[in-house]
Amino acid sequence: MNAYLERVLAETKQKNINEPEFLQAVKEVLTTLEPVIDTHKEYEGIALLERMVEPERIITFRVPWVNDEGKVIVNRGYRIQFSSLIGPYKGGLRFHPSVNQSIMKFLGFEQIFKNALTGLPIGGAKGGSDFDPKGKSDNEIMRFCQSFMTELYRHIGQDVDVPAGDIGVGAREIGYLFGQYKRIRNAYEGGVLTGKEVCYGGSLARTEATGYGLMFFMREMLKAHNNSLQGKTVTISGSGNVAIYACEKAVAMGAKVVAMSDSNGCIYDENGIDLDLIKQIKEVERGRIKEYLRVHSSAKYIEKTGDDSPVWTIKTDIALPCATQNELTLNSAKILVENGVIAVGEGANMPCTQEATDYLLEKGVLVAPAKAANAGGVATSAIEMSQNSMRFYYTFEEVEAKLEQIMINIFNSCKIASDKYGCPANYVAGANIAAFQKLAKAMRSQGIV
Ligand code: NDP
Ligand code: 2IT
């Protein structure tokens, strides 16, 4: 590998030795940049890569709150303000017991590249907490969100840093966070959070945007290889925001979705998933996916037992990992290939392990990389911010049309970069290169900061 790249990788590893997810994300990007770095010797002198892998600011804070039994609980809050190079820090908040600094940093790092690909003026950030929303009452969720915002508010602002949702943070949590922010600031600053409900400043189609965007990207990728979604079988991991709306759009595009999952297991319904029932179980009841069987007793439920998700053992043409990082392992990739998979679309962030991605590409499977394929969510967040600035609402159709065009542009950028830099059909490399070129240009323009 290029000596400069190799040195930065080694130094990053040494400095962040206890952060495996962050190192994985950095390695994945840097190893694909070689052809660009080779032609830009001047980057080393201005420590361009060293600056790109070091967050501008890391904030961690105590989040004390009182549960329904009157017990005081202390969680840890995070906000990684990774890069303000091309716009205000922007990225979601994740509430999940697995949250730690490594996961926050990998997500913040990837967000910089993703946001650059959207073509919109947004920097990169991520935040969240090790708080576990599962089994908590509405009041507990509200008290937690209020405590979290009581510290976070001093670090964010509609031109400074704009959080949104991610795992465990949806419209309910954004509402509680926004209410507390507004109360502390004594001002309506609508653009400080995205993913708001439409009745107080949210954007139509933001709920659907990540899943729909994933399918627009998938459609473009398949089209470039003379294929389409029509008549294809699709399996999806997860049954949260991204998974549900990927399913909805996949069906609208003529595919048949036969499996979805949650962290306990997956359901397989050969007749096609009943998405209204999934929405009822997940969005209304906040229940487990196994409850699908209470209506469709002919469907199968496969419990998750080992490390690998059972959803990838089901035969499919298209696999959409939409749950969490490293959920699609080499082992699962091998089973998917054996079963004839033609494309994998990453709805989640870094859902394929590096070994899985390498194997899929080697076997000629099309991979739609997360940074590009799931960028529809944050792109629509930026459209929400612009509506807030204008004090105006677009219709659902207007937002969806903008989202569709953005996803087409993102696919084209990935394709152009992968063709130009000698890795045709490798959209993983294409996405990294296309984003990097924009960021590198902005970094050079702004001096040593
Ligand atoms: P949700 O909280 O709505 O849903 C998450 C889903 O993933 C649930 O079905 C959950 O199952 C499952 N899941 C979460 N953690 C794990 C785990 N450790 N192992 C197995 N399953 C798990 O989140 P989103 O749909 O918003 O996010 C899903 C993915 O998409 C994440 O990687 C997120 O970063 C990414 N993403 C989200 C965007 C958005 O706009 N929301 C935008 C771009 C990317 P269970 O209920 O059992 O925990
Ligand atoms: O990973 C992501 O891009 C998100 N969770 C959405 C971020 C956003 O600001 O809408």
Report a brief summary of the structure:
The protein has 449 residues and is of the alpha/beta class.
Notes on the protein architecture:
The chain contains 17 helices and 12 strands. It has 449 residues and is of the alpha/beta class. It folds into 2 domains: 3-188, Rossmann fold, CATH 3.40.50.10860; 208-373, NAD(P)-binding Rossmann-like Domain (Rossmann fold, 3-Layer(aba) Sandwich), CATH 3.40.50. A 7-stranded mixed sheet has the order 9-8-7-6-10-11-12, with helices on both faces. A 5-stranded mixed sheet has the order 1-2-4-3-5, with helices on both faces. The longest helix is centred in the last third of the chain and has 25 residues, at 396-420. It is globular and about 60 Å long. It starts with a helix and ends with a helix. The mean pLDDT is 98. NADPH dihydro-nicotinamide-adenine-dinucleotide phosphate binds next to helix 10.
What is the 3D shape? globular
CATH architecture group name of the largest domain: 3-Layer(aba) Sandwich
End-to-end distance: 27 Å
Radius of gyration: 21 Å
Beta content? 15-25%
What order do the SSEs take from the amino end to the carboxyl end, as H and E?
A: HHHHHEEEHEHEHHEHEEHEEHEHEHHHH
Bound molecules: NADPH dihydro-nicotinamide-adenine-dinucleotide phosphate, (2Z)-2-iminopentanedioic acid
Number of helices: 17
Which segments are poorly predicted (pLDDT under 50) over 5 or more consecutive residues?
A: none
Strand order of the largest sheet: 9-8-7-6-10-11-12
Q: What is the total tally of β strands?
A: 12
Specify the structural class: alpha/beta
How many domains? The number is 2
